[in-house]
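ok trying again, last paste got cut off:
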Amino acid sequence: MAMNRPSPATVVFLDLVRFTSLADIHGDVSAADAADTLARTVRGSLSENMWLVKLLGDGALVIAERPADGLRTAASVVERLHDGSTGLDVRGGIHFGPVVWRHEDVFGTAVNLSARLAALADSGTLVMTRAVAEHGADLGLDATPLGEQIIRGLRTPVEVFRIDPCRHDEAWVIDPVCGMRLREVDALSPLGRVGFCSTRCQALFRAQPEHEDGAPAES
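nice, full thing came through this time. structure:
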């Protein structure tokens, strides 16, 4: 992988949500298919001076020279998965800062922070630091301040912002068993935020209704 190895750089960490539940309910092949879908979507969203450094099973680490490019690509991945028919969603964290390159991999606080920010994001959203969020307006993306957040492993709180790239009016529901997101019109027994992707999930829920008010934890 030839690259100019920029530093500082924009670090984008993308993470499939509800991946553990998907594997548990629908099996390892479905989970692997979901990981492949994420990889294809990320690769198809990269622009010039951006690099897919590595895939992490249910995640992807991307480097961009410019914050605006990193934000644009992350937003594109979120939207493309949301608009697809797979029922998958992704969340992400983005930070601009110094990085260290070793053997075609990248390390540093900026990398760790971007991963921590992804863990703060809700399904289909991006959480980022100010240096990235200030480019949102130029891309037609509204950044919502979340204030200073305590980030595990860091001594100083970090000011963060959230961007929701998806602005769709269509009604969606979440399967409370496997966590798959579906259009309400395609779901079995839709009720409020909940619906089922299959008779299997519907039967499992009826046998053990642990998540009556929504989806399982995003992981």
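cool. The longest strand covers residues 9-16. The chain has two domains: 9-163, 172-207.
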